[in-house]
Write a structure and sequence with these properties.
Length: about 110
């Protein structure tokens, strides 16, 4: 149980870093521009992919899930996949809200 909580925290932090790199990093600026354009595509699959890659909330679930899969491949029980993924997503989202609140002008820390 303690191991699962520890891995959930690690997955949450790794997910937060990956999400920040995608949404804030200049290295992914071109890819973000393409995915923004895909949102308005006529094909359903391309439009869905564009929507997924530009929505922080939606993409967060996928990033934490796949990081959790990597955790399970590393030797953890597959029974922990869903609890670790959902816990990590919840922690990542709370971390996002906390840091977003601190970054807003006029907010008091």
């Amino acid at each position: 149980m303690t191991e699962a909580l520890l891995y959930a925290i690690m997955v949450a932090l790794a997910s937060r870093a990956a999400m920040d790199a995608w949404f804030e990093g200049s290295i992914f600026a071109t890819a973000r521009a393409y995915s923004e354009a895909w949102r308005y595509s006529d094909t359903k699959l391309t439009s869905l992919l564009g929507e997924l890659l530009t929505c922080r909330f939606c993409l967060g679930y996928h990033v934490t899930f796949w990081f959790s899969v990597l955790y399970c491949i590393n030797g953890a029980s597959w029974l922990l996949l869903l609890p670790v993924a959902l816990t990590a997503r919840a922690l990542e989202y709370q971390l996002y809200l906390l840091l977003k609140e601190e970054d807003e002008p006029g907010s008091q820390a």
